[in-house]
Write a structure and sequence with these properties.
Blueprint (H helix, E strand, L loop, with lengths): L4 H20 L7 H30 L5 H4 L5 H31 L7
Helix pairs in contact: 2-4
Amino acid sequence: MSFTYYDIVFFILVLAINIYIFRNRKKIKSNRFTKISIFLIFFILIPYTSNTIETINIYKKFTIVDSFNLWYLLFKYPVWWSIGIIEILFLSNLQEKNLLQIHKNTKNPQQKC
């Protein structure tokens, strides 16, 4: 199995949070701290934790562990990196849309509702 339950649950959690943010038009400030946090989470923490869990499972499952049993773990990093890049782009795009909407609303302050 190339993705463990941990990976699937975390991916569903990320999708649910993104859908919640998008539907409710939550204002997310995408500053450096947010981007660095997302970078650290998706580029280091999640792949490392996922590979650690999967390595433990492989050592429990097989008596002889060779490089072929662990080869697919190398490809988990680029998958989570891609998801992290998409997440950063999504939040940046959402912030730009919010700024444009705020700018559009304040463009003509003399207009009465």
